[in-house]
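pls read this stuff:
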Amino acid sequence: MKNLILGDGSRKAQEDLYGTWFAENGNAKYLISKCEERIDKYRKWLTNFEQLLTSVKEEQFKAREEEIRQFLSRCTPEEIAAFQNGSSV
């Protein structure tokens, strides 16, 4: 498998390129298997990261929304009207 792009062949170079390293004597069947395993795992991780990110953003939005509600509850009707009109009191 000399023609493959495995960096300079070192583990570090392979990890920089692929996030993992491969056996020096790996044949095509081995490399295909390893690549398919990694792709499946990364797809799962990516989905998990996306779900986590969405969840964290939703929680952050809810917290901010509550802060705004508390702030507005301390305002007078005139101050709220001024905010809505884009002017200051």
